[in-house]
Amino acid sequence: LAFTGVVHVAYIPSLEGRVIGLSKLNRIVEFYARRPQIQEGMTMQIHSAIDQVCEKNKGVAVVVKCSHTCACHRGVKHHGAVMITSKLSGDFYKESECRKEFYDFIASAERK
Predict the structure, then answer these.
(1) Label partner for 57 (CA 20 to 30 A): which of 19, 71, 76, 83?
(2) pTM value?
(3) Residue 108 to residues 15, 68, 101, 102, 111: CA-CA distances in angstroms?
(4) 4: exposed, middle or buried (C-beta count within 10 Å: 0-12, 13-18, 19+)?
(5) Cα–Cα distance between 104 and 73 in angstroms, integer?
(6) CA angle, 82 then 34 then 5, to 5°
């Protein structure tokens, strides 16, 4: 069954690296989100694609937060159950301040 939710992405370009626009990030997410698959796989695929397109980046972060209809309509029937998956690399993984800033941005976006 389907799952719906939001995807938060970020990357840190380097001086020698490639910078892409917001619409390209949206296209990457849309491309993988339209495929029949599991959330964990989609999270990894989005991370990998951004990492490849944004050559020589200093880090990529992807957080996916979704509600799954299989948990709401079948089996345990937990309405409102949400699953969060993430994949962090580079400075997002190694630097706690960088990771905290990314998570703070997500939290502020969800409060609106």
Answers:
(1) 83
(2) 0.87
(3) 28, 24, 10, 10, 5
(4) exposed
(5) 32
(6) 20
